[in-house]
Fold:
Amino acid sequence: MVAALAWVYIHFGGLPAVASVLYGIKPVVIALVMQALWGLGRTAVKNKLLAVVAVSATAVGLMGLHPLLLLLVAGAVVVLATQIGRGAIRQSVMGWTSLGSTARWPSGKGLLKSAVAVTTASLAPFSLGPLFLVFLKIGAVVFGSGYVLLAFLRADLVVHRGWLTDTQLLDSIAVGQITPGPVFTTATFIGYLLGGFPGAVVATVAIFLPGFLLVAASGPLIPRIRQSKIAGAFLNGVNAGSLALMAVVSWQLVRTSIIDAPTAALALISSVALFRFRMNSAWLVLFGAVAGLAIRSVMRYP
Structure:
């Protein structure tokens, strides 16, 4: 189903009706991500230490630190603070600050080098081999919530390789919300956009494969992991880092999808429907699609 929608998107995405549907669904997706962010936050932030780590990780993530490194550092900081004691908390926070200062907000020559790097990445040729490796890595390291996937997708496909634009990424997420199944089906859509049907197959297999292998391999280890205080502290830190990644990608997606007053209103209405009235997300996505068609028809948006 997702591959079929990707075909429709490629061949008819420029039609006003399709553009209007996506116009209305994108703000709804923002509300859905915010709901997931809130749910993960209530689970991940168990104490003040984890709250500090989550806030600090969000700041560092906004500065450009790669999502995988951010998760590893978040886990290490919590382990350090838990094992050494309260004194380590200050050191950990100072470490986050110093790490953030090197996470690249370039200026001058550094800005020029970054611009060249981005341009070079955008010119990198696409092939199925690197696509498989990208989604294999993402499937192996995504932790905390399916929506953390969005941070890795943006870092690898938009920022690093330049294979997608922010708009295409958000469209992929929107289509993933239309169809049943996990958020990971977004990989199928992206794979089709980049490499046709072979790309869809490669991306889908790659992102789901680590889950099957890791579940089978980690079964005997779960009891030992649960008994380890160090492992527990590390996983708590990774959860806090996952929360930060979701916050960062939410902000980036808001900038792409909330483009005018109607989309801001749709996002607000969707948030109220989700948080206050617990509206089913499928009906909310349908509402967004219909609202998008109506708004662009009446107001004659381009």
The chain has a mean pLDDT of 80. The longest helix spans residues 186-218.
